[in-house]
# Entry
Amino acid sequence: MKILNVVGARPNFVKIAPIVAAMKQSRHLRSWLVHTGQHYDRNMSKLFFDEMGLPRPDVNLEVGSGSHAQQTAAIMARFEPVVERLRPDAVLVVGDVNSTIACALVAVKMGVRVIHVEAGLRSRDRTMPEEINRLLTDQISDLLFVTCKDAIDNLVAEGIDRRKIHFVGNVMIDSLRRFRPLAEKSNVIERFGLARRGYALLTLHRPGNVDRAGDLRHFLGTLREVAARLPVVFPIHPRTRARIEASAALRRAVWHPGILLTEPLGYLDFMKLMMEARLVLTDSGGIQEETTVLRVPCLTLRENTERPITVVEGTSELVGRDRAKILAGVERILAGQWKAGKVPKYWDGRAAERIVRVLENMANSKTAQ
Ligand code: UD1
# Structure
């Protein structure tokens, strides 16, 4: 069975690494790696390939940035001839970024099976571009791998045949477990002059949080109040950086002796910072999951989440941009009054193995036919 694996944006690299490694071990699967080029900065792309030992992509579509329509269309136009040339049996996409829907759509229209890893997550917030990508990708997928039971319910409620759905666990957590020993060795805590459990780690990049200057300024004001309680490390996403650099008021708003601004970090340094943080503030999806497994308190800076399991079972709480909720959450964490959470089922480091087993069974039954 020939499979074309697709990646485009930073979280995709973390998800695909264990899948590529597990496919390499299989005698029944042959795979290629296509990078759409949605993320292209060294710190957002190549560094992840190097640290995770990912093979160089067989094809790089080099689409770069653009509006949603431009980016999605460019990926589709450049991906179609690749599928034409390689003629895979299936295209495997991960997550919910523009590269995910673009390549899935190309494949399904060419009669190539679509495999979606991390299917069925729903925030029920259709103003999020990722929610649209998730809904549409799942509708055109032939095989859907899910990280949790509520994803199965979401898919079945949308009319997807249960037989296409496989509960395998979380590939992002496969990577977390595999690379944790290496991350332990990172000296980022010393480099940044931090104390273990003595700082907060912040990430912020959702359009809903950073695209309106007024909201972002208000938000940064709250973060300065957090920084008055404990140092805040803030690796800044290019989208957020561009917004802040464009405005003198925002540049002032982010300045505080307790806020440590850095470039986006590599996977290992970032994992080490998460592991040792007193608390994490984030609007990222994957970080809600990683902090749950690391048992680090997480204040999720969103009104909703497509990963409710991280709230119900894990260490996350939704606080949105609400100043009172954020500051109260920080105080509760500092007072040691936070839930310990538990690790969700199958977030055990073996999700990619399970995926490969399903694919091998399919390949074998095809050969037997
Ligand atoms: C994308 C995903 C989002 C994911 C995030 C992780 C979509 C719709 N969004 O958001 O779900 O959480 O990746 O990081 O696919 N830029 C650079 N260098 C880069 C990449 C981006 O400077 O390597 C800048 C560009 O100005 C670009 C902006 O960041 O316009 C946004 O990049 P884009 O890929 O459109 O979306 P993200 O916000 O990164």
Observations:
- The longest strand covers residues 2-7.
- Residues 73 and 106 are 10 Å apart (CA to CA).
